[in-house]
Structure formats: structure tokens, C-alpha cells
Specification:
Structural class: mainly alpha
Length: 368
């Protein structure tokens, strides 16, 4: 009973107040005919630029360092097809696919988490907490263990698993709305069931398949090829712009159903569309890298704290997620070599510490 109460307190600590008035700041940029307008906040723009610069720096370090060190010039020559055979193999076959996969997976998870946290009104509303990531992992594991499917089939299995989990959670929330405390608690319960299903699937696998599946379940970027980078890259290119197009509606929905409806937003359709986008991003990320934890939880919160934005900061969140995952992968490659540690060990450690800090901070705020 005490464990249930502690879990409820932890979830409640993440609940955000929706009644806080928003202070609208920044500069509005419009086209001449007014068909398109964009509000630019100085602090958010500065944070975005800094995060982008740090990401480029981490990418440069990842491409130039390692067992075979390369200069920046050698890397650029290899990227443009003018490098030596050895440099071309190291950059374009070994390092670049893994790096691009890390960047795109981190961005996808962060945007997915930012959408869910905004829809639920809870700092704990991320796909790995609610269970969507585990649902995607279940779908992918069925394809890996039972069907011995290809990369395309694994991606489809993860997408189907994630959407099925979202559907199950939605059915359990019928009449209560897809936001707030109840959704988090229901999601935690569904996630626990899916973890048990994943463990069962591993017991049905052969010894070699079980080892590969267990390593994949931790979350790994090792041995990633261009097919993985292209798969998650295509998902990001298609889904993230769709999320950005709905960002203004998401901001209105975050203010409450009544206000959003008064402003002409179809709340039900907007929530459904954003939920599908969020689940799809998490599913594709899980398909290519496994269920990497805490990026979707921590990246949006860190981005929002840095930008001090009242609205969902999707672009800074994407850059923060890409930076965190690329940096975590660089750390496990360089500091723990020659051991081949999955990147999920790093994100799990960092994310666990962040989650403890978040719960303590939110708990203190609720008591104040």
C-alpha cells in the first residue's frame, strides 16, 4: 500500500498547474499578406543557437576521435567523396551512420516527450513512462524473435506495437480525457504488463536471439548502418514538421479545453493527431535503437527550463534530445573503450539522477 501511495505522490509531483496566466513576449514575424506569422523569443532563439552549436561540436568530436584519429579536413574530404579509402570507410561506414542515428533518435524521442508532457500536463508524461516505448519494443520483439523480420518489418512492428499501446491506454481512459494524473497511472500499469510480455518473448527465443534482444532492449547504437539512419531520418523529416505545424494548437490545448475551444481549436482532433505523431516518433526511434530511456523525459524539461517558455519548445527540445543522446553515445564509446557498453546504460544513469532531482524539486514546489 505504501508503494502505491509513493508512486501516486511521485506522479502528482509532476502535475503542472494549468491556471497560471501566460506572459506573451517576443517579436512576431509575418509575411506581407499575413498568411504566415511566427513569434520569435530572444531567449528561445539564443538557446536554440547554442544547442545547435554544441551539437555540431559533439558531432565533430565523434567523427574525428577514436581508435583512428582524423583531422577535420580528412573528415570533410571523406564526406564529400574526396578522402582516402581508409578515411572514407571510417567516416561513411563506421561513424556517420551511428552518429546520424543517435542525432535523429534523440530528436525524435525529445519531440515525442515534449508533445506528451504538454498533452498530459505532467512532467512525467513521456513515452517511456506511459508505456508507448515498451509497446513499440513488444511489437519489434515479436518481429525479431517470432518472425525473424527485416529492418523494415521491425520498424512496422514497432509502429504497430506503439499505436496498439496508445489505443489500449486510450480505451482505458474513455470518458476521462487523455490528460492528467490518471493517464500517467494507467500508462505505468500498461508499461509494467508490456515489460512482462517482453521478458516472456525473450524466454521463447534461442540463446543467440535472446542475447541480441536483451542488448537491444537496453538501447544500443552499436553496429548501426545507413538503413537505420535513413529509417529514423525519414521519420524525423516527415513527423517533426507535422508536429511543428500543430505546435500553436498544442499551446492552446495546454491552456485548457475551454480556452482552446473558444479559440477555435478542435481539441479532440488535435489531441488525436498529436498523440499519433508522438507515438510514431517513439516507435521509429525504438525500432532502430531499442527503448532508450529518459531522453524523452529529460530533454523537453531541460529545454523548457532553459528557454523559460510557457509554450512547448519543440525545436529546442529536439536539439536537446539530439545533443544528449549523441553526447551519451560518445561518452560510452570513448571513456569505456574497449568495452562495448550500450548507450542505454548512460542515459539510464543520467536520467535516473535527473528523475530523482525532478521529483524532489516538484515535491518542494507542491508543498510551498
Amino acid at each position: 500500500m505504501s508503494a502505491v501511495r509513493a508512486e501516486g505522490d511521485a506522479v502528482a509531483a509532476g502535475q503542472k498547474a494549468r491556471t497560471t496566466p501566460r506572459v506573451v513576449t517576443g517579436v512576431v514575424v509575418r509575411t506581407r499578406r499575413g498568411g504566415f506569422s511566427l513569434r520569435v523569443q530572444g531567449r528561445a532563439l539564443a538557446v536554440t543557437v547554442v544547442l545547435g552549436a554544441l551539437l555540431v561540436l559533439v558531432m565533430g568530436i565523434a567523427l574525428t576521435t577514436g581508435d583512428f584519429e582524423l583531422s577535420v579536413g580528412e573528415v570533410l574530404q571523406a564526406l564529400f567523396g574526396n578522402g582516402s579509402g581508409a578515411a572514407d570507410f571510417i567516416v561513411n561506414t563506421l561513424r556517420m551512420p551511428r552518429l546520424l542515428t543517435a542525432v535523429c533518435v534523440g530528436a525524435a524521442l525529445a519531440v515525442s516527450g515534449a508533445i506528451l508532457q504538454s498533452l498530459t500536463g505532467n512532467a512525467l508524461g513521456s513515452p517511456d513512462i506511459i508505456g508507448f516505448t515498451n509497446g513499440s519494443a513488444t511489437g519489434a520483439l515479436v518481429v525479431i524473435v517470432v518472425l525473424n523480420g527485416s529492418m523494415t518489418q521491425i520498424a512496422l512492428g514497432a509502429l504497430v506495437g506503439g499505436l496498439a499501446t496508445a489505443g489500449a491506454v486510450s480505451l482505458l481512459m474513455v470518458g476521462r480525457g487523455l490528460q492528467g494524473f490518471r493517464l500517467i497511472v494507467v500508462g505505468i500499469g500498461v508499461s509494467a504488463l508490456l515489460l512482462a510480455a517482453n521478458s516472456y518473448l525473450i524466454t521463447r527465443a534461442s540463446w543467440q536471439e535472446a542475447l541480441e534482444a536483451q542488448a537491444w532492449l537496453i538501447g544500443s547504437l552499436g553496429n548501426r548502418l545507413w538503413i537505420h539512419a535513413n529509417t529514423i531520418g525519414l521519420a524525423v523529416v516527415v513527423l517533426v514538421p507535422l508536429a511543428l505545424l500543430l505546435a500553436r494548437r498544442l499551446s492552446m490545448v495546454e491552456m485548457g479545453d475551454g480556452i482552446a475551444t473558444a479559440l477555435g481549436v478542435s481539441v479532440t482532433r488535435t489531441r488525436a493527431a498529436l498523440l499519433v505523431i508522438s507515438v510514431a516518433l517513439a516507435a521509429f526511434a525504438t525500432a532502430v535503437a531499442g527503448p532508450i530511456v529518459f531522453i524523452a523525459l529529460a530533454a523537453p524539461q531541460l529545454a523548457r527550463r532553459l528557454t523559460r517558455s510557457s509554450a512547448p519548445a519543440l525545436v529546442p527540445s529536439a536539439l536537446m534530445g539530439a545533443l544528449l543522446l549523441a553526447l551519451s553515445d560518445l561518452v560510452v564509446q570513448r571513456l569505456f573503450a574497449p568495452a562495448l557498453l550500450p548507450v542505454g546504460t548512460a542515459t539510464g544513469t543520467i536520467g535516473g539522477l535527473y528523475l530523482i532531482w525532478l521529483l524532489i524539486t516538484e515535491s518542494r514546489k507542491s508543498r510551498a
